[in-house]
Amino acid sequence: MKENRLYLIIWGAALAFFALRIVVECIYHGEGAIDFAAILESWLRLVPFILLFAVHNYLVAPLFVEKKQTALYVVLTLLLLAAFIAWIVLWEERPEHSLMPPVPEPWDPDMDLGQMQPRMGSRPMHPASLKALMGILMVGGNLGIKIYFRDEFQKQELQRLERENLKYQLEYLRYQINPHFFMNTLNNIHALVDFDPEKAKESIVELSKLMRHVLYDSDKPTIPLSQELDYLANYVSLMRLRYPEHVNIEFSAPAQADDAEVPPLSFASFVENAFKHGLNGGKDSFIRIGVALENGKIIFKCINSRPSAPATAGGGVGMKNARQRFDLLYGDAYTLHIDESADVYAVVLVLPCKPVKI
Questions:
Q1: Which range among 98-102, 118-122, 214-218 shows the weakest confidence by mean pLDDT?
Q2: CA 237 to CA 252: how far, in whole Å?
Q3: Are residues 176 and 287 in the same domain?
C-alpha cells in the first residue's frame, strides 16, 4: 500500500538522519570509532514519537477518516497527545546528542569568536516543548496523509466502477446490435432464395464472413479500422447481390488504415438503415458509403436516396444504440451530423482514431 510505504520511507529517513548526525559528530571531533551507543540512544528517543504515530495512525485516525466519528476522534486525540506530553515531561532525556543546541552563556569579551553561539532575541524553546510541538505536528501531518490517500482511493474506486459500468453497458448494447443486424440480413437472404438460389448461396458465404467478424472480433472494446472496413466491404457485397438493379451502390475506403481503431460494428447501423429506408422500390436509388482518414480523425459518410414517404431513419434500435455507444466511448470527442432533405438522407460521423474512455 502506498500510504504504508510512505510511512516506512519517512521513518527510515528519520532513523538515518539521527545515525548520520552521530557519525558526523564523531568524525568532526576526531573520534577513532563511531559511537554506536549514541546512535542507539538517539533512536530510543524516537520511541515516544513512534508509539504516538502507531496509536494515532492505526487506532485513532481511522475513527475520523473511515468511520466519520469526529467527536470521538477529537477526544481520543487530545488524550493521546496529553499522554505523549506527560511522557516527555516526566522522562526528560539527557542533553547528550540533543537535537537542540545548549543555551548559550552570556557573552565573554575574551571568548574565541569561533566558539560564539548566535544570540537570539528570546530564550530558545525548551526541548520538552519542542518535542511536544513536534508530536502535535506529526499527528496533524499523519491525519492529512490519511485523508489524502483516502480521497485517492475513493477516486480510483470510482474510476474502476465507471470502467466496469462502461464495459457492462457496451456489452448490453453490443448484444442488442448484433441480433438486430443479422435479423435484417437473414430476411434479405430469404427474399433472395425465392428468385435466385445461386446468388442466395453467394450471400450465405458473405454472411458467414460477417458472422466470423462478429464472433471473433465484436467481443473486444475496439478493433483495427481495417477489420471494420473489411466487414463493411463484405456487407456491401452482400447487398449488391441482393439489389443488382436500380440501386447504385458505391463504397470507398482508405488503402491503409494505419493504427486507427474503432468499436466493432461502428458503422453497421448507419449502412443498414441506408439499405432499409433508402431504397425506393423498383425506382432508381443510390447509396454512397465512404470512409477516410484526415488529421488523426476517422470520417465516415453514408448518403442515400429517400423514398417519397420515408420512414423515420434515425429512430430505430440500431441508430439509438450506435449513439449510446459513441457517447460511452468518446464522450464529447466525436461528432455525428445527420442532414435530411426531401430526397436525400446523409450521415457524417467523425471519430478520433482511438476511443478516449477505454
A1: 98-102
A2: 13
A3: yes
Which of 272, 261, 206, 275 is CA-nearest to residue 228? 261
Buried b (16+ CB within 10 A) or exposed e, 155-184: eeeeeeeeeeeeeeebeebbeebbebbeee
Residues 267 and 324 in one domain: yes
For residue 50, the one-letter residue type is I
291, 254 contact by CB (below 8 A): yes
Q: 52 with 165, same domain?
A: no
Residue found under cell 429512430: 315
* Span 48-74, pLDDT tens digits: 899 999 999 999 999 888 888 889 999
Q: Which domain covers residue 17, as residue numbers? A: 2-98+128-157
Last residue of some domain: 142, 157, 172?
157
In this predicted model, what pLDDT tens digit does every residue of 295-309 receive, in sequence order? 889 999 999 988 765
* Cα–Cα dist 260/177, whole Å: 22
Are 171 and 262 members of one domain? yes
CA distance 286 to 282: 12
Does pTM top 0.85 for this prediction?
no
Closest CA to 138 of 245, 14, 295, 227: 14
